[in-house]
Design brief:
Blueprint: E1 10-13, H1 18-28, E2 34-37, H2 53-68, E3 72-81, H3 102-115, E4 125-135, E5 141-152, E6 168-170, H4 182-186, H5 190-202
Parallel strand pairs: 1-2, 1-3
Antiparallel strand pairs: 3-4, 4-5, 5-6
The structure holds inosinic acid (IMP).
């Protein structure tokens, strides 16, 4: 069992990814938690050696909690494409290369889908998965997972969100995550679903 956080408490968001930090801050905003990012505290980025989202979220949260002396919330997430046997999955960030260019990453997914002959919506199913871990400086941690299912469109649509958002069309929707207002994405995203479980267990709201 990890800590209960209440309004006024400080928390490290254990990520150097600006898109994730922004979304986690938006989700935390109503609860009065003071969130600082690992980047702002200049914390080192641990190597993601886990082979699951959960394992990577836990190692990032533990490292940030230990280095900062504060509770730390880490997110490990990614896009799992059915026709690619779940790739890029935990390697979603790496598909964008050294320059973290997600036009390139989305293009790689599209090329791989073409090679798998996945051209119609029924062959282009995918999900985003998010593991959120809260760790305390004593090494205790708890993890919460959320998923959202949809299909991949081409060409990319919309400039909002981050990462693979412009190609992800959630089930039953008409706008990609890249076209949606932030609140609309938070109404259904993998991160928001994991966050709700975290909130119910860890926030004294
Ligand atoms: P990591 O968890 O730091 O290994 O990186 C996860 C990667 O998955 C991100 O860099 C994005 O490319 C992708 N990803 C995770 N969540 C989202 C999302 O909400 N929208 C779009 N891409 C995402």
């Amino acid at each position: 069992m990890t800590a209960k956080l209440k309004s006024g408490d400080r928390l490290v968001v254990a990520s150097h990814n600006k898109g994730k930090v922004r979304e986690i801050n938006e989700l935390l905003a109503p609860y009065g938690i003071e969130a600082v990012s690992a980047g702002e505290l200049d914390l080192p980025e641990p190597e993601e050696t886990g082979i699951t989202f959960k394992a990577n979220a836990e190692l990032k949260a533990r490292a940030a909690a230990k280095a900062s002396g504060l509770p730390a919330l880490a997110d490990d997430s990614g896009l799992e494409v059915d026709a690619l046997d779940g790739q890029p999955g935990i390697y979603s960030a790496r598909w964008a290369g050294e320059t973290k260019d997600f036009e390139v990453a989305m293009g790689r997914v599209e090329v791989a889908l073409g090679e798998a002959d996945a051209r119609t919506p029924d062959r282009r199913g995918a999900n985003f998965t998010c593991a959120l871990t809260l760790a305390t400086p004593d090494g205790a941690c708890e993890t919460f997972e959320g998923k959202v299912f949809g299909t991949l469109v081409w060409p990319p649509r919309g400039k909002r969100g981050f990462g693979y958002d412009p190609i992800f069309l959630p089930q039953g929707g008409s706008e990609t995550f890249g076209e949606m207002e932030p609140d609309e994405k938070h109404g259904q995203s993998h991160r928001a679903r994991a966050f709700k479980l975290f909130r119910d267990t860890c926030l004294d709201a």
